[in-house]
Design goal:
alpha+beta; 6-stranded antiparallel beta sheet; 26 strands; 53% helix
């Protein structure tokens, strides 16, 4: 909020909103006395942003107040008073810049006391009490607003967005004055408001007591039959004169039957809604008057009347109300309001009068101390005496003492600095003389150096060029020093490259250097000669850099190096030839090693002593062994023998026979005890390599996959031959009968249907074999589209219902069952699953197919009530050519390909095919296909 006050229009808008809220929802001290905070926002806008924003804020707050609360008595009079007040505040601000808002506002209301009294009494005809109340109420409210505005403005001055943007400081006198006044005013507001509430509560209790006493008298007359319908009118007058109250009696229908008030005639209904409770709680009285505003609350109390409903404890069918006006209580009420507001006004003005000298008394030593510390440098320079102030405030006196000690220390240090300055001046004179001698020595060293020395500043200008440099380059010193168009002296490495070389090194004592070799010098006539120079980068003050170049002419050394290079090239050529031969040998060795490592067989070679010289990684993979290179061949054989299942095979004996020279060639097979029960063939042969001590070679070949394929081939031939033989034999038998005999047309039609059925069976078997081939070669083609699964399943079920003894039931639950799939393959899948269910449930009378949808899946369950699947073969169920073997149902045929093909089809559709089964209870095959959330 504080940050947004920085922008004038935005800060003004915020202040208008806050001021309007403070006007619409004022703080009520006690009944009718309210503090409105609208003018506080106008004061803040005036001080922070200027007159335009201040008056705009006041107008907007008044307009919003009238728009929300409507016009109240004296609205325009009060608005005019606030405008005059704001004009006074503006003039005060112009006359006394950054003056106190509280003092300005208090001065305004003190000055306006007499004019306002005269104007209200003589011009408007107001009585003195109402005028006094209205003036005091507005004055107290405005002074409270000025106090709030002053605190907010001071907070803004001392708490900007950042320290560098704060708008100023505040005198300590003003801070002490303001917070003393704030404390006194807040305490007074709380105490006087509480006391006024207490006194009004006492008046309320008195009114209740009097009305209750009168009501009890009326009730007693009703109960004693002294008050009847015949004498009610006379009794009303009697109650008015004796008890000072007006009595109203209502019948059970709330109609007035007797009234002591002319405003409530007999025969009408009493409108209780015109009254409200004066004070909530038990035995409260009803109160009637207009709305009370802070400007006319005394008039409001003059016009008020109070009513009390009697407590009817008997069976009397009447309601009795007792009414009285505020004339008997107005004097006390008026005294409460005037006393409270006069006290607040006097306390406010008196607190400011008292707080001003009190704050000055407390702060005056600090002000004198501030002036003294401001003149402290001048007094120190002139060795003047300082007169320190004193204070009766303990903390201020301690601060004065500490500053006095600090000043004494500063005086001593200042004197020491003066002595040091004199000493330093003497040293500077001596150092200047030494530097002059040093400069002469440096010049002599540079002139006598055998190396060329060139100094360059950070702008690239040459500032030093010694005699050796003049001789080396053939240029005079004056031709290059401080010359922007000096001739180029080097070729080769550029300045940027040299700087990049220097940046690779860290500064050591403000210096770093690099030696540049691949560079040439340029003489005055343009001839080029080889040089070597060292460049030193030196950091000077003020972020300046100096480059010193130390240059050597290396022409002779270059010639010697050229001769040395020629000899080195000859040696290098000879070394290259030797290296190429070595590389060729290494390449041949690498090729051999790569060949050994790349073959699928495991290779082991040993020398004649039985030490393994070559063993490839395939051996480790086959048998799960570590690297046996350099170990005995018998250790390897023994490690393999421990897991060989072939009883008549012993690798240790075979290797010993080769080591003893008893055998030169062996070829055999064995079964290894691993997870797959792998089958290996072993080839052992004696190796005779000229000049080498290699003994024999062992070649291990993994034939597990070959054996598996052979078994599958035999199974395929067995199954296919059996499955083909049956339909072919049936077809041939019926054809021969038809050829041999002249059969009736009905029988021929029956034979032809049987031949067609067996032909379809034969075609299905061939399709399964072809599908297996396509699936294994990943050549299956799917024509994907949106398939209505429910219709597809019902169609398959209908086909099987026509040819099976079991009844196929289809159950569909929530969902539309559209799958993105190949329709023909889905039909094939369902036929396979339903066909298996029919075959393996010969004794059952039904098969259930259930469809439903889950969050991400389309679900199909095919359940039969047949023989089930044993637990020990369930892992093999989706293997090619596998069929459940049940001795009680050997007549069940099939190739064992249906479930394998079905699972492949489902997985190619990114789905799953699983099952659950229990022997003799049946099986349930579960198809899960993914749902498509969007059309593809």
């Amino acid at each position: 909020m504080v940050i947004k006050l920085r922008i004038p229009w935005l800060g003004t808008a915020i202040l208008i909103i806050l001021g309007a809220l403070g006007t619409i929802f004022p703080l009520t001290l006690f009944y009718g006395v309210q503090l409105l905070f609208g003018t506080a926002a106008a004061f803040i806008a005036l001080r922070l942003h200027g007159a335009i924003y201040g008056f705009t804020t006041l107008i907007a707050i008044c307009a919003l107040g009238m728009l929300c609360a409507g016009l109240v008595p004296n609205s325009f009079f009060m608005m005019g008073a606030h405008f005059i007040e704001l004009i006074w505040m503006l003039g005060w601000q112009i006359r006394w810049k950054n003056g106190s808002l509280m003092k300005a506002n208090a001065a305004f209301w003190v000055v306006m006391l007499l004019p306002v009294t005269c104007y209200g009494y003589f011009m408007l005809g107001m009585n003195l009490e109402e005028l006094k109340y209205g003036y005091m109420h507005v004055a107290v409210t405005s002074m409270v607003n000025a106090l709030i505005a002053g605190i907010v403005v001071d907070f803004w001055i001392t708490n900007g967005e950042v320290k560098s943007k704060r708008t100023g400081t505040i005198p300590l006198t003003r801070i002490a004055f303001k917070y003393v006044v704030a404390f006194v005013v807040v305490v007074s507001l709380v105490l006087l408001s509480a006391d006024s509430r207490r006194q009004l509560g006492q008046i309320n209790d008195t009114i209740v007591s009097n009305l209750k006493h009168a009501a009890n008298a009326v009730i007693k007359d009703l109960n004693d039959r002294y008050l009847t319908q015949e004498n009610m009118h006379q009794s009303m007058e009697r109650y008015h004169h004796l008890l000072g109250v007006n009595v109203i009696i209502l019948d059970p229908d709330d109609k007035v039957i007797a009234s002591g008030l002319d405003t409530i005639p007999v025969g009408e209904y009493l409108d209780i809604n015109k009254y409200r409770f004066l004070k909530p709680g038990e035995n409260s009285i009803l109160f009637q008057s207009g709305d009370a505003y802070y400007s006319d609350v005394l008039t409001h109390w003059k016009q008020a009347s109070f009513m009390y409903e009697a407590d009817m404890t008997t069976s009397t069918p009447y309601r009795v109300f007792v009414e009285t006006n505020s004339a008997n209580y107005y004097t006390r009420i008026e005294a409460i309001y005037l006393t409270t507001l006069q006290s607040l006004f006097i306390i406010f003005v008196a607190s400011m009068i008292v707080a001003a000298p009190l704050s000055r008394k407390v702060i005056s030593p600090l002000k004198r101390l501030t002036r003294m510390t401001g003149s402290l440098p001048r007094l120190l320079f002139r060795n003047g005496e300082m007169e320190w102030p004193t204070s009766h405030v303990t903390e201020v006196q301690i601060l004065i003492g500490n500053l006095r000690k600090m000043a004494d220390v500063l005086l001593g240090q200042f004197e020491q600095i003066r002595q040091d300055k004199l000493t330093l001046e003497d040293r500077v004179r001596e150092r200047t003389k030494e530097l002059k001698n040093s400069e002469e020595i440096k010049r002599a060293i540079i002139d006598s150096s055998i190396d060329a020395i060139i100094a360059v500043d950070s702008n690239g200008l040459i500032i030093e060029f010694n005699p050796e440099a003049e001789r080396m380059f053939g240029l005079k010193r004056e031709e290059v020093v401080f010359e922007k168009e000096a001739p180029s002296l080097f070729q080769g490495a550029s300045c940027m490259e040299i700087k990049a070389m220097l940046e690779r090194f860290e500064y050591i004592r403000g210096k770093r250097h690099v030696i540049v070799e691949e560079i040439s010098g340029i003489r005055w006539d343009g001839s080029v000669f080889p040089i070597e120079y060292k460049i030193v980068e030196i950091q000077l003050g003020n972020n300046e850099i100096l480059y010193n170049l130390f240059i050597k002419d290396i022409t002779e050394r270059t010639r010697a190096e050229e001769d040395r290079v020629r000899h080195a090239l000859a040696l290098e050529k000879l070394n290259a030839e030797l290296f190429h031969e070595k590389v060729a040998i290494q390449e041949q060795r690498d090729i051999s090693e790569q060949f050994i490592e790349s073959v699928r067989e495991g290779l082991v070679m040993s020398d004649r002593s039985g030490t393994i010289t070559i063993v490839n990684r395939r051996i480790e993979e086959m048998f799960g062994l570590r690297d046996f290179s350099g170990r005995s061949i018998e250790d390897l054989a023994q490690a393999i023998d421990t897991r060989i299942l072939t009883s008549e095979f012993n690798l240790v004996e075979q290797t010993r026979a080769f080591l003893n020279g008893e055998r030169a060639f062996v070829e055999t097979e064995f079964i290894f005890n691993d997870v797959e029960k792998s089958v290996f063939s072993l080839y052992m042969k004696q190796m005779d390599v000229p000049g080498k001590n290699h003994g024999f070679l062992l070649v291990f070949r993994d034939r597990t996959e070959e054996e598996r394929l052979n078994r599958m081939k035999n199974e395929l031939i067995s199954v296919v031959s059996h499955e083909l033989r049956t339909p072919v034999a049936t077809i041939m038998g019926y054809v021969e009968l038809m050829m041999m005999y002249d059969l009736p047309a009905s029988q021929r039609k029956e034979f032809m249907e049987t031949i067609s059925s067996e032909g379809a069976r034969l075609s299905s078997l061939l399709d399964d074999v072809l599908d297996i081939q396509r699936l294994d070669n990943e050549g299956m083609t799917y024509h994907m589209t949106y398939v209505p699964l429910l219709e597809l399943v019902e169609g398959v079920a209908e086909q099987w219902n026509m040819q099976s003894i079991q009844r196929i039931y289809v159950h569909a639950f929530n969902g539309d069952f559209f799958a993105y799939a190949d329709q023909n393959r889905m039909v094939q899948l369902m036929h396979n699953l339903v066909g298996n269910a029919v075959k393996y449930s010969p004794g059952a009378d039904r098969i259930d197919i259930t469809l439903w949808e889950e969050k991400e899946w389309l679900c199909i369950d095919v359940r039969d009530y047949g023989i089930g699947i044993p637990e020990n073969v369930q892992d093999l169920l989706f293997t090619k050519f596998y069929r459940v073997d049940n001795s009680d149902h050997r007549q069940i045929g099939g190739t064992g390909l249906g479930l394998y093909i079905s699972r492949k089809i489902v997985e190619d559709h990114q789905g799953t095919l699983t099952f659950i089964s229990a022997p003799h209870k049946g099986s349930t095959f579960k198809v899960r296909l993914p749902k498509q959330d969007e059309l593809l």
